[in-house]
Amino acid sequence: MAGTKRRFAPGNGMAYAILHYEMPPVGGGKRKENMMKKCRAAVIGCGNISVMHLDSITHLEGMELAAVCDVKRERAEAAAEKYHTKAYTDYTELLEKEKPDAVHLCLPHYLHIPAAREALKRGVHVLSEKPMSIRYEDAAETVQLAKSCGLQYGVIFQCRYNTPSQLVKKRITDGRLGRVKCARSTLTWYRPEDYYAGSDWKGTWDKEGGGVIIDQAIHSLDLANWFIDSTPVSVQASLHNRGHRSMAVEDTGEGLVRYENGSTLFFYAMNNYLVDEPIEIRLVCENGTARLSYDEAVIRYEDGTVETVKNQPQRIVSYTGGKPYWGSQHAVQIDQFYRAVRGEEALEISAEEALKIQKIICEIYRNPVERTCAEQLSGERADGERTDGERGQGDAGCV
Ligand SMILES: NC(=O)c1ccc[n+]([C@@H]2O[C@H](COP(=O)([O-])OP(=O)(O)OC[C@H]3O[C@@H](n4cnc5c(N)ncnc54)[C@H](O)[C@@H]3O)[C@@H](O)[C@H]2O)c1
Fold first, then answer.
1. CA–CA dist 85, 101 (Å, integer)
2. What is the CATH number of domain 163-310+367-398?
């Protein structure tokens, strides 16, 4: 373990250890800078999240921003001016003319797959924002396409690089915590009506593919699923729209995922609260328990020791915008992606890896066992299935 250890005995005289964990250095150790091949990257979609990609590309070593693209010309031109690059409004034209090594997809959910395919067909590596798709089958086919082309295809799940997440994962895999027997994930956030009203794709089945589950809770569900690291065998969920009258999708979702190894994941997510409370994940493991949020992890072992870690934001890139709840780890994941592109190491969060949570998310939408506000949640979904209950109450989707 990288870091310092501090031991003390509290007042009750019981031997008690608090271990403070520090993140290993970004970049996985020494870099052969001279041998580093410069990668030309392009960003497609210049909306909210793009700043995390643009600042990372323009600050990381060995990178060059070849161009940006947005169908909204003013957004493309503003980004091009800020980052001193070329603007396009058609990504196929960008791909043809600029021939970048890689593209970053920061698009509405339903457009990630078509753009990924266009890039992969032209021999361009792809780093997609989450979710990679709104349909599991499309995502799986695109993973195969990337494999057949021998290209890197990554999906952003930056929360895996938060210090608390890294420590908990390490303690599960090194056996100190051991296997996760049961997990609980809670997200209670607030997204006002104008968050949806101000977007031409959020809050819709065909473009966003769902609501709080596919957009916000996907990060915490991915973390919990990553910690459990087993094959899901069934998904039960209920979806509700309790407060967002102007949107079609759910603002509340809860459910249970059962795994092949006997583990279970209980989840509750809503963006109908008054404020954004910290996301919390609790794990009951073979040798102790863990509680983690964005800010810290507290691990209590059965022998009475406690290990804590505070989040340590990365310091390689300072972003010129963004929301606090996005964290700071985009640059770390983007840096890792390009080390994989250069052939220095294996891609950590590949699209194949991301398929695991994609499958669970799609099952949640395929098989909700109960709904409220049926008039809002009913109707034809993007994958052609009805959302208004052709499956009986209590059905559990098998994955
Ligand atoms: N990792 C995270 O924490 C995080 C946070 C926020 C958003 N996201 C994800 O990032 C993606 C984008 O979200 P956002 O909030 O930036 O959305 P946004 O609506 O602000 O930006 C999307 C942009 O894509 C552009 N666009 C649409 N169609 C296009 C096309 N055919 N070609 C080029 N540009 C096109 C739009 O004009 C818009 O500017 C989503 O998948 C979202 O879930 C991830």
1. 16
2. 3.30.360.10
